[in-house]
């Protein structure tokens, strides 16, 4: 896992690295500037382009000065220039050192004291090194004017560390003034807010570059915010073993579907099979039985007739996934109530089962500890009340998982997984081609299958969300511009999972 840190913790990480590597702060700045330049030149490789770097007078500005020198002297960008916003008397020591160093190069440097002094900008690319992680209040005054001005030019802007005016954590005010950057090259780790939807006001794309901050130190800060990486999933995966049989991999029950929404049940149950559950039974309406048998003969059925609740032998099942296409009528309520009051092992609750829960609060007390709720944003707000923004949702999720001792999967780009020990895991796979009906049903099937195979609830959530997104990434066109169908994601699962398991077995 990569810990995602607050601005204060990032500063602590920088200071610790400076003191213990040891490295001088100006050398760390040099390393950061080099890492930025490497990524920048890979994306904007035409050295004949004119590049202007707008620098503040703190360390973000210091980075900008070092970047100007390195681009010019080491990378051959001869049309690089620098403009320094002298909005205050203060300047950091490393800024001053880098200004001296820049004076020995051919890079033209000018300074301005008010945004009004600026004429039209002719450079093709603007590098934003005005303010970084040191932002301590929303932009106002000259900074606000300058950022408005830069945004109005509608040039390609590349931000150093964070777009000026964008706060790395906390509620994002969509009205706040922020640089709108085409690319943000950030140091060491994405900032927490890069992974929330409102970041789209300031960031189109981001990438993180390693600047050698002490990893052991940042791990022991024990941040509640974590970014899931492939190696975490490889570590969790349980490849099939010799001499195992279907009983080894659990028996999952998928409770889903109505006559008109049988597709949801089929997508969910088939994903459960493809994720490796030893046995999968689907509890479906009579009307869907033929469809089920034709769609995937591996799935067994418990048939729901009329409005009655079917007999279920609770002891037979390792886990259950409930909700896709289930509807919210009285028979669905009765079935969900029967499950939650009779079954004590963790279950996966999705879609209509979540909507029933939202409308019947007394049922919450019956949800088995360790269960997994998989709401998208609207379902989340139905369950826990309206939220003004995603930061608020993350904080509610953190509070609710601890209160109810459950896991919550808040679905999105960078799906967020909240676990009862008070952690938020941000997923790093999936893409917009997956934004299509039925994709969540597949996810529920995957997570149910992992629970059946004795993954802990937290592992089932983290690995399930990752694998779902990975299969979608493996299938999407390189530009991610067209849809990937849920059925195809399901069919891809064994290959995607198998590839990770092969890495595990071969020691990578
Ligand atoms: N040694 C280090 O600590 C490293 C820092 N690095 C760079 O340093 C940056 C952080 O530098 P700083 O802490 O100097 O902070 P910034 O350069 O982000 O900001 C400079 C100063 O501006 C002032 N300020 C904050 N918000 C303002 C606002 N809304 N309006 C007007 N002024 C405002 C603050 O006094 C702040 O200290 C990082 O984003 C990164 O780019 C990198 O060089 C890596 C190493
Ligand atoms: N833009 C996107 N980027 C990444 N993943 C996405 C995107 N849109 C949807 N997904 C994924 O697809 C799934 C959609 O779930 P959901 O909204 O419940 O779909 P449905 O109810 O139609 O099955 C989630 O796992 C979500 O993370
Ligand atoms: K910046």
UniProtKB/TrEMBL annotation:
CDD domains: YXKO-related
Cofactors (names): Mg(2+); K(+)
Binding site residues for AMP: 411-415, 440
Protein name per UniProt: Bifunctional NAD(P)H-hydrate repair enzyme
Domain YjeF C-terminal: 229-500
Boundaries of every YjeF N-terminal domain copy: 10-219
Positions annotated to bind K(+): 60, 128, 164
Sequence similarity: Belongs to the NnrE/AIBP family.
Reaction(s) catalysed by this chain's protein: (6S)-NADPHX + ADP = AMP + phosphate + NADPH + H(+); (6S)-NADHX + ADP = AMP + phosphate + NADH + H(+); (6R)-NADPHX = (6S)-NADPHX; (6R)-NADHX = (6S)-NADHX
Subunit structure: Homotetramer.
EC number: 4.2.1.136, 5.1.99.6
Sorted UniProt keywords: ATP-binding, Isomerase, Lyase, Metal-binding, Multifunctional enzyme, NAD, NADP, Nucleotide-binding, Potassium
Gene name for this UniProt entry: nnrE
Cofactor note: Binds 1 potassium ion per subunit.
NCBIfam families: yjeF_cterm, yjeF_nterm
Pfam family of the protein (one): Carb_kinase
Keyword Isomerase: yes
GO biological process, one term: nicotinamide nucleotide metabolic process
Binding site for (6S)-NADPHX: 59-63, 132-138, 143, 161, 264, 325, 376, 441
One function term, GO molecular function aspect: ATP binding
Function: Catalyzes the epimerization of the S- and R-forms of NAD(P)HX, a damaged form of NAD(P)H that is a result of enzymatic or heat-dependent hydration. This is a prerequisite for the S-specific NAD(P)H-hydrate dehydratase to allow the repair of both epimers of NAD(P)HX. Bifunctional enzyme that catalyzes the epimerization of the S- and R-forms of NAD(P)HX and the dehydration of the S-form of NAD(P)HX at the expense of ADP, which is converted to AMP. This allows the repair of both epimers of NAD(P)HX, a damaged form of NAD(P)H that is a result of enzymatic or heat-dependent hydration.
């Amino acid at each position: 896992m990569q810990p995602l840190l607050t601005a204060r913790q990032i500063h602590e990480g920088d200071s610790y690295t400076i003191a213990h590597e040891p490295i001088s702060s100006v050398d760390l700045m040099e390393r950061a500037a080099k890492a930025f330049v490497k990524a920048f030149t890979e994306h904007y490789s035409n050295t004949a382009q004119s590049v202007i770097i707008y620098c503040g007078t703190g360390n973000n500005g210091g980075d900008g000065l070092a970047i100007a020198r390195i681009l010019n002297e080491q990378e051959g960008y001869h049309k690089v220039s620098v403009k320094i916003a002298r909005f205050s008397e203060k300047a950091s020591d490393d800024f001053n050192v880098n200004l001296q160093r820049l004076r020995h190069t051919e890079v033209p440097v000018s300074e301005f004291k008010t945004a009004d002094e600026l004429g039209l900008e002719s450079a093709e690319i603007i590098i934003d090194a005005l303010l970084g992680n040191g932002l301590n209040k929303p932009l106002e005054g000259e900074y606000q004017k300058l950022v408005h001005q830069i945004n109005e030019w509608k040039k390609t802007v590349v931000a150093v560390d964070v777009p000026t005016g964008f706060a790395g954590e906390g509620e994002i005010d969509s009205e706040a003034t922020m640089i709108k950057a085409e690319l943000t090259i950030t140091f060491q780790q994405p900032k927490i807010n890069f992974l929330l939807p409102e970041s789209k006001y300031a960031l189109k794309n981001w990438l993180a570059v390693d600047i050698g901050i002490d990893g052991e130190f940042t791990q022991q800060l024990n941040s509640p915010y974590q970014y899931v990486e492939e190696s975490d999933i490889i570590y969790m995966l349980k490849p099939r073993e010799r001499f195992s049989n279907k009983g080894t991999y659990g028996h999952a029950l998928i409770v889903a579907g109505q006559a008109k929404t049988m597709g949801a049940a089929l997508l969910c149950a088939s994903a459960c099979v493809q994720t490796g559950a030893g046995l999968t039974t689907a509890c479906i309406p009579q009307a869907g039985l033929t469809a089920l048998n034709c769609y995937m003969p591996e799935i067994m059925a418990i048939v729901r007739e009329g409005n009655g609740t079917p007999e279920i032998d609770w002891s037979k099942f390792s886990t259950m996934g409930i909700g896709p296409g289930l509807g919210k009528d009285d028979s669905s309520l009765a079935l969900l109530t029967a499950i939650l009051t009779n079954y004590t092992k963790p279950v996966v609750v999705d879609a209509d089962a979540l909507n029933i829960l939202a409308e019947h609060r007394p049922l919450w007390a019956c949800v088995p500890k360790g269960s997994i709720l998989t709401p998208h944003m609207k379902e989340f707000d139905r369950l826990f009340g309206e939220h003004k923004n995603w930061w608020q949702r993350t904080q509610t999720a953190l509070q609710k998982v601890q209160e109810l001792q459950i896991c919550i999967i808040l679905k999105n780009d960078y799906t967020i997984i909240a676990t009862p020990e008070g952690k938020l895991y941000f997923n790093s796979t999936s893409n917009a081609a997956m934004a299509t009906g039925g994709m969540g049903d597949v996810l529920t099937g995957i997570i149910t299958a992992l629970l059946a195979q004795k993954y802990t609830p937290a592992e089932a959530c983290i690995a399930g969300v990752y694998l779902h997104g990975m299969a979608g990434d493996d299938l999407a066109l390189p530009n991610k511009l067209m849809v990937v169908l849920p059925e195809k994601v399901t069919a891809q699962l064994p290959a995607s999972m198998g590839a990770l398991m092969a890495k595990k077995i071969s020691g990578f």
